[in-house]
Amino acid sequence: MVYLKPVHGSKNIIFIQNKAMSMNVEIIFKYFTTLNEDQRAHFSGLGSLYQDWNQKINVVSRKDIDELYLRHVLHSLGIAKIQQFNEGAHILDVGTGGGFPGIPLAILFPQTKFTLVDAIGKKIKVVQEVIDGLQLDNISAHHTRVEDLGGQFDFIVSRAVAAMPTFVHWTRGKIKKDSAHERRNGILYLKGGDLTDELKDYKTAQIFELKNHFEEDFFDTKKVVYLPQKFKK
Predict the structure, then answer these.
(1) Angstrom distance (rounded) from CA 95 to CA 124
(2) Based on the number of CB atoms within 10 Å of its own CB, is 111 exposed (0-12), middle (13-18) or buried (19 or more)?
(3) Measuring CA to CA, how many Å separate 135 from each of 50, 62, 91, 202, 210?
(4) Phi, psi of 18 (to 5 degrees)
(5) Computed over its alpha carbons, how large is the radius of gyration of the chain?
(6) What pLDDT sits at residue 16?
C-alpha cells in the first residue's frame, strides 16, 4: 500500500492506495508537469476514493476502474489542453456522473469555481463523498436537472451525455454573455467518433483532436468540441 497525505486544508487525511493505481497516476504527472504538491496529492488520492465508493455505488464501469486515470481523469483533463480557466471563473459540469470532467478540472484549477449537476442521486452522493474526501472547496454538487438549475456560467463542460442539439437545448440561457477569457464563453464537450452529422448545423463549432495532445491509443478518436455561446446555424 501507498500512503498519501494531502497538504490542503486544516484536516489531515490519509489515503490508502493500491500500488497499481498509484502507478497509474503517473500518467497525469506525465502530461501536467507543473502541478504543486497539493494537486499531486489530490490526483493521487482519487484512485483509492473511487475504488472504495465504486464497490458501494457503481458509477464507473467495473472494467474501467483499473484504468481510471487514463479513461476518466486524463480524458477529463483533455479540456484543459484546449482551454485554461481563469481565477474566479465559474464552470458548469452537466451530467457529471461520477464527477467527470468536473473533479479533475477543479483540482487542476483550484481558483476556479465548479458546479457539478446530475439527475441521478446516487451519482451525486459519490461525487460529494469524493469532494469531501479531498477537501475540495471550489466545487458544489447538485442532484438536479440542469434545466432546473439557476445561474449562469463562463463555460459548460460535459462528457457526451447527449447529442449536441439536445445538450444545447438543455443548457440554453446558462452561459454568461460577457467573456472573461480570450475564447468566447461557450460549451466544451468531450466526444468521440465521427461528429460530421451531429455538428452539421453548428457552423461555428470547432473540433480539437485529443490525439494531438496525448499519445495513448485510447485518444485516437477522442475530441473536444467547442461551441461558442452565440453560434450560427
Answers:
(1) 10
(2) exposed
(3) 15, 26, 19, 39, 30
(4) -60, 140
(5) 17
(6) 45
Instruction: State pTM to two decimals.
Output: 0.89
Answer yes or no: are the C-beta atoms of 151 and 174 closer than 8 Å. Answer: yes
pLDDT tens across 69-123, in order? Answer: 999 999 999 999 999 999 999 999 999 999 999 999 999 999 999 999 999 999 9
CATH class in words for 2-228? alpha beta
| Ranges of residues in the chain whose predicted pLDDT is under 70 | 1-23, 231-233
Only one residue has cell 489531515, namely 12
- Residues 6+ positions from 232 with CB-CB distance below 8 Å: 203, 204
The residue count of the chain comes to 233
Name residue 130's amino acid.
V
For strand 139-143 and strand 155-159, is the pairing parallel, antiparallel, or unpaired? unpaired
